[in-house]
């Protein structure tokens, strides 16, 4: 048996080697233990409920960069509400405080290096806090794995259980992961189905070619037109104005179909 002092009340807490979480029998505070020592661990409440998370995902699939039919065709195959463990490091770098967030659990889920932990939303995770039955993902990475790569001097370092919606969706036989921040509603993804670029490039090139040829024709005709050069350019302008609706219609068809 080893022993630590409670970081809140100072009472001794005996624990078995290898144990990560202990609870002070005197004040009820729960502590996280790793090779860097013992300290509080925190939790952030969910502000984004499932119905809101589903709506956020739906709006994300309708974005301008997404495949045209992603909103209609994407099928959610897995949707989990989790408290995911991350390490929060507050460091003093040249007199300025900077916060780093790193995953405390090995994962392939996207965006977990980019989570933002607002200080005002952190709650000390003691016996008074109820998770409501939401799964707490256990950490499997030691805090010490990150310490040697951090800049500056330590101000605070803690384990934080961060609220996320972890989902997987299927599109045209392929599966894609996504994470929705349960605090802010921000969406994090890795690869995702995007719109085809070729049709847009084609319509842009065709539009440029048409107007370039019209301008070139006007320039050539005006060279030998003498006093009628102004009339030639008026005719070219009218032809260009006549062309614009057709180019616009073609662009609209491309946007709708691709």
Order of helices and strands: EEEEEHHEEEEHEEEHH
Number of distinct helices: 5
Q: Estimate percent helicity.
A: 25-40%
Based on CA atoms alone, the radius of gyration comes out at 29 Å
Give me the secondary-structure category: alpha+beta
**Low-confidence segments, ≥5 residues, pLDDT <50?**
none
What overall geometry do the principal axes of the alpha carbons give? elongated
Instruction: Report the end-to-end length measured between terminal Cα atoms.
Output: 65 Å
Q: Quaternary arrangement of the chains shown? A: single chain
What share of residues are in beta strands?
25-35%
Main β sheet profile? 10 strands, mixed
Number of beta-strand segments: 12
Q: pLDDT average, as an integer? A: 83
